[in-house]
Amino acid sequence: MEKQANINFHQTFKPERQYISSILDIADGNSYFTVKDISRMTGIPQGVSSGKVEPHISYAEFMGLVNTDKKEKQVKLTKTALGKCVFIEDPGLQEPLTRLLLHAMMLREEKGAGMWSSTFRDILPKYRNQIKKDILIVELNKIYNGKVNTKNIAPFLGSYDDFFAETGVISVNDNILKCNSLPYNREFVYMYALVLWTYWEEYYPDQQEISSIQLVQVGFGKTFGWNRQEEYEVMEHLADKGLLRMNRQLMPYTVLKLVDIEMLISKLYSELC
User: N or C: which end of the chain has fewer CB within 10 A?
Assistant: First the structure.
């Protein structure tokens, strides 16, 4: 199946923490800026025809931190509800919780970055979570009509060697890319629920309750390298916290949301020691 996505949005630049933080800082929702304006305000390098401003605006948008409104050659940046929370709690994007959350937001099916989403959701599970880099390119080209090469996949790989390195979700050895199963962290409980709710609403926006079969399509566990059993165990933690209810009397079992996304965002950092 071919997908339509701007896989070259990054212009070969990997995400850099300080630049995404700077984009979030100026996203006041009031003013339209040119690329040059944003470069001057943030210090993000920008040349005449190319630079890091537009790629980092895209990264911030794919990470769910800002919304953009483009008019002619100007753009207005507005913090999302998540962006406002992150800006207050972790404006420098230094917390491990923040990094893992932004990784997860990049994998959204509709609003995330295509290459990131396709790799984690469609390709890695097919190869039992480890794949050679050249095979990954072959698989991505089946999805993106032969448009993927070593140059435009480099920012994806580089992001897990830099911005997302601390998450530990990806490791590379001898040209083999491996998605690691991350241990459950009780301090991240609201973050896990927020990711689940976000993915859920992409697939089933009008359903407060879904079946375990629908949950497989949502693909929540793939983000953290979990198998179905590991995902189920995390769901039990979320149920114990009163965030959802699992009805195991039904076959297939069902999952019911007990809180909304706004509550999860408000509590996002509340469990950190």
Answer: C
